[in-house]
Amino acid sequence: MVDPLATRKALRRSATMYGVSVSDILGASRQAGSRHTNPDRPIIQARRYVMASLWAQGLSFGHIGRKLGRHHTTVMHNVIKAKEMAHA
Questions:
Q1: How many domains does the chain have?
Q2: Among 18, 47, 57, 77, which is 20 to 30 Å from 63 by CA?
Q3: One digit per residue, pLDDT tens: the chain, 88 residues?
Q4: At what angle do helices 61-68 and 6-18 cross, to 10 degrees?
């Protein structure tokens, strides 16, 4: 069974780990105060962590996407990228 507070916990944990706010993670920006789109930016990494964490807990890509305001294919892409980075 998935913890009903899983999304909130993952968001807080990721925000703390990456030094960004929960609002940054949920927002449209890829980097606070910057227009750069480098995938190593903290907000992108923080989102990727949240998505992979929730997927590992058993939430579907669609459910995660709805919780984070993203399309399910965006979630799929980020979970795959998180796995690749973990094995690199």
A1: 1
A2: 18
A3: 677 799 999 999 999 999 999 999 999 876 554 555 555 589 999 999 999 999 999 999 999 999 999 999 999 999 999 999 888 7
A4: 70
